[in-house]
Amino acid sequence: MKICCTPSSLAVQSAECRSIKKDQEAHTIARERNRAVQVDNMQSSIDMGKYLDPLQTELRGKLGSEEESQINCAFIVDTMESTIKAWHENGKVDPRVYFLLDKQKTCTAKYAPVVNIDKSQESHTCFSTLVHQAFESPQTHSDCFTFLRQYAVDSFSKAACLVAPKSIISYPQVWKGQGTRKWKYGQSDGFFVQFESPVLRKQWFVPSSSEMGRTLCTDPELLDVSVHEVLPRIFIEAISPLGQT
Q1: Beta carbons within 10 angstroms of residue 88's beta carbon
Q2: Highest taxon of the source (predicted)?
Q3: Number of domains in the chain
Q4: Co-location of 104 and 115 in the same domain
Q5: Are residues 18 and 126 in the same domain?
Q6: pTM assigned to the model
């Protein structure tokens, strides 16, 4: 039996289709708006303390001092949070080493708490000391960490935090290893944070992606610093007050 559609029934079907399409579009728009709000919140609500809280316990065990462990942990948290904020705003950060200076001993007129490591070298008397192209080659890399080691000694620094975007590192490309050195984070853009102190070394990779037209960092990934270090040890290794190295 042949079924004929009258003009009125076709009009009803067409109206129903338009209604369904509008509902779907409205649902998609609402979902995108909700995700945009979530991304905005993730960009603005940065709390690295919850990821790094176990580190304070480890530092306390190494340093034998609650106060010193809090100072060191706050130093790492502040460095990581400020770097993530800058990355969200600009889509990039400059490679730098932040130093935790000794308030009693450091000559702050001569030694800065921040060392940029990708520009032309300047005098130590400048507030921001610069080392030429740290990650360009094995030679510039060696020159950089040799300089930083001496800087740490001369400035009486207690600890340091390296920040280095993955994209600017020609050497060493620590994400190209095989076997136990194999990189687990694919081709993700992002940056390294490497904490250095006489009693403890830690390293993280903070992956970055683009979502809803915004740059978004995801949770920091703890790395094995002995495998993926971006710079060799800056401080001379010390025995902790509790006999741990």
Answers
A1: 17
A2: Eukaryota
A3: 2
A4: yes
A5: no
A6: 0.80
